[in-house]
Design brief:
It contains 4 helices and 5 strands, in the order βαββαββαα. The chain is of the alpha+beta class. The protein has a domain of about 100 residues: Alpha-Beta Plaits, CATH 3.30.70. The protein binds flavin mononucleotide.
């Protein structure tokens, strides 16, 4: 029997700010293959330094993945923000969507975080959870 569908949100800071597109592509390619095999979907938001990642999937697979991620030397100050039950996946088609810093994403972040700078570490979990559905279409005007 599979464990309950769960959403996990964490934030961190890149060890090397503004990684090269090649380094990002390599990370994403490997993550997407592993996530797909484990039934995990999600999104990675990176603004140059700050990282916000939303991961959704079976609770046991998510736990195993988060243990690996939390000890990865490519980032630091990893903070677990939220773990909650989930009825429906937020990003069913994304093994790992990638949202780099853009003006439209900036507008979504400002609307939901209520601040100019993207620093998820200081934002309450409830606000970040409310923002998650809006990450799917950052090109839509923020409500
Ligand atoms: C910001 C960040 C996000 C990551 N996201 C994922 C992910 O979604 N899925 C994944 O399998 N690995 C992810 N990783 C990589 C893992 O930390 C780990 O390197 C990878 O799963 C391979 O683990 P292994 O080398 O122990 O086999 C991420 C790493 C970083 C720095």
């Amino acid at each position: 029997m599979t464990t309950p569908l769960t959403q996990l949100i964490y934030c961190s800071e890149l060890a090397t700010p503004a990684p090269s597109p090649r380094a990002v592509d390599q990370l994403l390619e490997r993550c997407r293959a592993r996530n797909a095999a484990a039934g995990i979907t999600g999104v990675l938001v990176v603004d140059g330094v700050h990282v916000l990642q939303v991961l959704e999937g079976p609770r046991d697979a998510l736990t195993e993945l988060f243990v690996r991620i939390s000890t990865d030397a490519r980032h630091r100050n990893v903070q677990l923000i939220s773990v909650s039950d989930l009825d429906v996946r937020s990003f069913p088609d994304w093994a790992l969507g990638y949202l780099p810093q853009t003006a439209s994403l900036g507008a979504v972040l400002r609307t939901y975080l209520g601040c100019r700078d993207f620093d998820p570490a200081v934002v309450p979990a409830s606000r970040l959870r409310a923002m998650v559905p809006h990450l799917l279409a950052p090109n839509e005007p923020a409500a």
